[in-house]
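Schema walk-through. Below, the input block comes first and the output block second. Nothing else is stored per chain. Lengths vary across the set, and this one has 348 residues.
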Amino acid sequence: MAGATPQLIKELRELTGAGMMDCKNALNETGGDIEKAVQALREAGLGKAAKKAGNVAAEGLIAIEINNNNTKAVILELNSQTDFVAKNENFINLTKEITAHALNSNISDAEALNASTIAGQEFQTYLAEKIATIGENLVARKLETIEGSVVNGYVHVTGRTGVILAAKCDEAAKEKTTALLRNIAMHASAMKPTVISYKDLDPAFVESENRAIRAEIEAENDELRRLGKPQKKIPDFVSKSQLTEEAIANAKAKFEEELKAQGKPEKIWANIIPGQIERFITDNTQLDTRFALLSQAYVMNDKQTVEQAIAEVDASIEITSYIRFELGEGIEKKEEDFAAEVAKQMGK
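--- output ---
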């Protein structure tokens, strides 16, 4: 793979805010791999986390279909070449037809959808006829299905993001769970968690982010010191998955030493230390609050986490599946336009 090129340097600078020579060196060291270069800069304290500008904004719509008893849901990304067509009534109706077909035919993914028969036609023939009517290339790029004791979902008014969730719960809690899942889907649409629980985060990702976040804060503190401003606290950890019993015990011992040094009577330590431990956990789990749904502050009530909001409704509720689609997510940014991307996927 090639190293630094003017185009790659420009893109990396836009993504990270790092200097030109730093970007050039990172690209040369990683053979021109943008993602690796971003991480290398972050771990060196030279760049921020990549902005979302790295993905093209594909046009089209996200659509969902849920069965009558809220036990099964389908989510679809149907792409078009222009936003104008995505707002067309024929296109909107097409997304509804496809999601209903997938739900009723037990279709689980885009590959199965494209191999299916709809309205007595092969799906590709059916879609080709719609393309002729609508006047643009169309691609059913992504589709997923979930099932559970209760499912629900939400599509943002723009049609550019959508979420479906499944949960298990006691029979008596199903109605409450259905309403709750819609609210949590709205939360996830806005807050973009990638996993349900911190336990689902990849350990290698956690370790990599730990190094990168520490380096970012250290770089910020260098600037704060120069300006004579208070420095930020550098966390030891970034996820609850790292907070072993030993780590908590070490933190508690440190707090006890500090209280002793301050001359605080030992009899009041029990009133102080639990709050310090709680703050320690909060300070050392910032990755969870960014990526793990249950750890995020709930948008409907930011005084509690999503996990706490669920427990408040009913202790039997447990989220078992979570899928979020964002229009165009995962399509690489290239010099070619989206029409060319669609044509490529159509095999033309």
